[in-house]
């Protein structure tokens, strides 16, 4: 059960039916020591349950701990206190965890297929099996005809599709995505959102998706987690019907109400954060 805010009151709503908890954060803390010796508290007592096959979006001001949550979930870093469990076990980097970054991070001297095959080398697969799996996931993201193209020959959207195929090729249970579409133009971004949703419906991984876009969170997620200053401030169930990538849904009063609520929530967090360059500014003038 998670506390859910709907404009007009709080209530408790269940997770999606027939889904068990897969990823759990229990009172997690994480600090980083800066070069000058000061300590930055990135995560401060986060508790969070994410269900199997759930699509969760993390939103909040810059520096509030969203990316740190992904790194902790992947086992790239460990908490200073508290516990993280995926299906009852501490997380560790590997094929169960796919990671898609904002930067494409493709190997420039390898073609699209070779980039994906490289990510599969740690798995118990023959060379032929790696090649077949790479071809399958390139086809899944609509890039089978670009398998032999090098990153410099691909558009931004195509590069991100290669990065997505690379993360999916390990067939992870959890897909972690750190602002993967932030560098794309608006049209390509919406097309990639649709592509991601189509793949998610077919493969049903659990997705944890970091974004600064309220619209993107509402279009994609089952659950939106609002973060601020390293803590979870609010967990919101998105009960809007799918599909949401339509003009009609974006004009729906329910969508507009939730968008307005979330936008004002994030705006207030930014304007009241002493570390923000917008702190104390009156943007209504």
* CA-based shape: globular
Mind telling me which CATH architecture of the largest domain this is? 3-Layer(aba) Sandwich
The percentage of residues in β strands lies in 25-35%
Number of domains: 2
The DSSP helix count reads 8
Order of helices and strands: EEEEEHEEHHHEHEHEEHH
> What is the CA-based Rg, rounded?
19 Å
Largest sheet entry: 6 strands, mixed
Work out the helicity level.
25-40%
In terms of structural class, how would the helical and strand content be classed? Answer: alpha/beta
Low-confidence stretches: 5-18
Strand line-up in the sheet with most strands? 7-8-9-5-10-11
| The first-level CATH class name of the largest domain | Alpha Beta
Features:
globular; 33% helix; 11 strands; three-stranded antiparallel β-sheet; six-stranded mixed β-sheet; 285 residues; alpha/beta; Rossmann fold
Short description:
With 285 residues, the chain is of the alpha/beta class. Helices cover 33% and strands 26% of the residues.
Notes on the structure:
This protein has 285 residues and is α/β, with parallel strands linked by helices. It folds into 2 domains: 1-87 and 176-246, P-loop containing nucleotide triphosphate hydrolases (Rossmann fold); 102-172, no CATH class. The chain is built from 8 helices and 11 strands. The protein has helices at residues 66-74, 112-119, 127-140, 156-169, 186-203, 214-220, 247-250, 253-271; strands spanning 2-6, 9-13, 21-33, 39-51, 55-59, 81-86, 97-100, 174-178, 206-210, 223-228, 231-237. It has a 6-stranded mixed β-sheet with strand order 7-8-9-5-10-11, with helices on both faces. The protein has a 3-stranded antiparallel β-sheet with strand order 4-3-6, covered by helices on one side. A hairpin with a 2-residue loop joins strand 10 and strand 11 (231-237). Helix 2 packs across helix 3 (127-140), helix 2 (112-119) packs parallel to helix 4 and helix 3 packs across helix 4 (156-169). The radius of gyration is 19 Å and the shape is globular.
